[in-house]
Amino acid sequence: MTTFHLVILKCPACAALMTQYDLMSYTVHDSTSYSDGKCDSGAPSSKLICICPECTKPFWKEDGRYQDEPDHQQADQLPGAMDMYDLPWRFDDDNEEKRIGFYQDLLKDGFADGDKKEEYVRTMIWWAINDLVRNICSWTQARNIRQFKAITRHRRKFKALYKQYHSLFIENLDRMIFLFIKNGDPDLLFLAEMYREKGDFKKAREIYDKVEDPHLKFYRTLDGLIRKKVKKVVQL
Ligand SMILES: [Zn+2]
Fold it and tell me: What distance in angstroms lies between residue 167's CA and the mean position of ligand 1's atoms?
């Protein structure tokens, strides 16, 4: 069962109060997970960055903690914290690019003060670029020539976009790998995955061979992907 705990947050910029939920536990059985660690669980509280509904400035959830056991009557009067999916460009044609740009701007503005925060924002960039090809339509979904043409257009657009972000993708992974190693005791399977997605299969294999817990589901999948020199993110 998925359980949430209500909390009140205070915007560090304008002091507006808002409600948010802490995720206490959730089931992963219904969710789809991917090799890059993204999980389509729809759990809002796993998101660490909130957006203030008053001033629309982003802030770290931890920096906005105000009240942990709020009075429900008071909480009912307050708006909920937003996240980036509530921003007005959500339905724009280029929302994927705006999402990547949003996280890039956070890094440029020094929003991610500290390695852990930088790792988080960079993970969001990694996932957002992978999203361009994560759920790309397959030819087999076409039922007629009109759908076939639409899918062709869709695939062409997203593959071109994915290519366009290639240098950012590599630069971002390089920095994540640096932070992972610098902070000590990295998750080796995850590190091997980063090298694989970069296309450095030699290094991916070298790290993979150091993994001591071969019982994880991802362990076997990753072995095959490195062997076949597949770079793309995959569904597990
Ligand atoms: Zn605010």
Answer: 34
Tell me the backbone φ, ψ of residue 38, rounded to 5 degrees.
-75, 140
- Which residue(s) pair with 5 in the sheet? 22
pLDDT in tens, 4-38: 788 999 999 999 999 998 876 655 555 678 899 88
* pTM greater than the 0.85 cutoff: yes
Ligand 1 centroid to Cα of residue 82, in Å, is 11
CB-CB contact of 70 with 7 (8 Å): yes
Q: How far apart are CA 120 and CA 103, in angstroms?
A: 10
The answer to whether 122 and 116 are in contact (CB under 8 A) is: no
Q: Report the amino acid identity of residue 212.
A: E
Q: How far is the CA of 98 from the centre of ligand 1 (A)?
A: 21
How many A from CA of 105 to the centre of ligand 1? 18
Dump pLDDT digits (tens) for 36-85.
Answer: 988 876 554 457 899 999 999 999 999 999 988 888 888 899 999 998 88
Gap from CA of 93 to ligand 1 centroid (Å): 27
Which residues neighbour 196 within 8 Å (Cβ) at sequence distance 6 or greater? 204, 222, 225, 226, 230, 231
Residues 6+ apart with CB under 8 A from 115: 179, 182, 183
Q: Where are the domains of the chain?
A: 3-86, 93-186
